[in-house]
Amino acid sequence: MEENTTSFTTVNFISPPFPVIILHLTISIALAMSLLGILANLYVICVIYQQKRERKSSYYALTNLAVSNLMLAIFYPLMTLMMLIDFNSPSQYRSEIIKYFLCGFIMPMSITAIVAANGTLAFIAYERYYVLTGTTNITRQISRVKSSVILLCIWIIGILYNYPPSFLLMPKSTVRNMCTAYAVSQNGRSWVLILSGLNILVPFAITLVFHLILMVKLRSHQHQFYGRSMRTARVQPLLINTQPNQLVLETLQMLRLLTVLQLTFYFLSFVGSYSTKIGYARKWNPYVVGLSFTLQYISTVMACLNGPILYIVKIKKFRRPLELYCFNIRQCYQFKQRS
User: Fold this and answer.
1) What is the pLDDT of residues 238-264, one digit of tens each?
2) How far is 180 from 129, CA to CA, in rounded Å?
3) pTM, rounded to two decimals
4) Which domains does the chain have, with CATH numbers?
5) What is the rounded distance in angstroms from the CA atom of residue 40 to the CA atom of residue 132?
């Protein structure tokens, strides 16, 4: 009887590439963070939708970033959750439909959302550069049509970048190996890591260049923000007649911080992914591989929260509805206490 039980366990259950306890803890923490990311990004989208007067290119980009973060917060946890279910399911209950759903839709969509988020950060940097370096006394703006086309192209690039390879590799994909993420093949692993690195390095280089140019131009024209030559300044204000110097500097500071945090967490995710795949292929200590996976997973989910938190803290338009809601709750509570 004991021999049959052992045989059944060996055949029908496959051990994960790292301890299951780490997988459970990672999923528990990340699911809570993903829920916060979903609520926060939905809040940002609703606030932007209600601000009809502010539907310009910069807010289109912030909306696109919120949408990509929202999709990442929804789809990315499903990958590991389905992977955990597959680990704990007997072989006769493993379905090819789940594999096609995970490897043909969920995983490519998650990576597409990362590409869209990084591409949107690069577009925001370019849009700020375009607006703030006008040569006339009228602030330049990228048209809404052009912004929509550029942001749509970013999503198309992400889809073409991920879906065809996913379908081509479908015969070699398995849920327990998270599709082909833990490929033992040196060529396959190198190809995945190179593409993952390009997802981060290319947008980072673009945003870095534009932010450096803006910093140099702002320093060279900083005296014009405080003098009478404001009307002829090369670097234009974001809003006319509303302390433009402070708005420009605070907006750029917030955007730089958002870019740095977002790309930092994606870089940590890349490092965790690299360590997990290399460690799994070279048979490292399972706990080291598991901690690398945790770093990859938590960093990716944390990237979904950066934008909403910074918007609420730094931008009054996003903070005001939340303050009013909290104020109304406080007033209702005080009214009940008095009655």
Assistant:
1) 444 444 556 666 667 777 777 778 778
2) 39
3) 0.74
4) 2-338 (1.20.1070.10)
5) 29
